């Protein structure tokens, strides 16, 4: 049996202030800024959905507690 680990980044749009620090910090360039605005009028970062290596760079660069969550998913 093999187990595949997959990293998933969840960014809460309304917790994001649009500073782009996470986008610049990501070594895999898998985060981008939205063209839509959140409820406070800021563009927000989002995960393209593939390629995250779980390094934590985005999480540690973000000044907004609760905006970014990184989870590890395991698939059999
Ligand atoms: S954990 Fe690392 S690779 Fe994944 S989105 Fe954040 S900065 Fe990019
Ligand atoms: S670092 Fe945080 S506040 Fe800044 S764009 Fe990324 S998620 Fe939004």
Tally of helical runs? 2
Give the tally of β-strands: 4
Question: In CATH terms, what is the architecture?
Answer: 2-Layer Sandwich
Helix percent reads 10-25%
Main sheet specs: 2 strands, antiparallel
Number of domains: 1
The backbone outline, from C-alpha atoms, is elongated
Identify every distinct bound molecule in the structure, by name, code or SMILES.
iron/sulfur cluster
Oligomeric state of shown chains: single chain
**Portion in beta strands:** 35-45%
Name the CATH class.
Alpha Beta
Can you list the strand order of the major beta sheet?
1-4
Summed over residues and divided by their number, the pLDDT gives a mean of: 94
The SSE order reads: EHEEHE
Q: Are there runs of 5+ residues with pLDDT below 50, and where?
A: none
CATH overall fold name:
Alpha-Beta Plaits
Class per helix and strand makeup:
mainly beta
Q: How large is the radius of gyration? A: 13 Å
The separation of the N and C termini measures: 7 Å
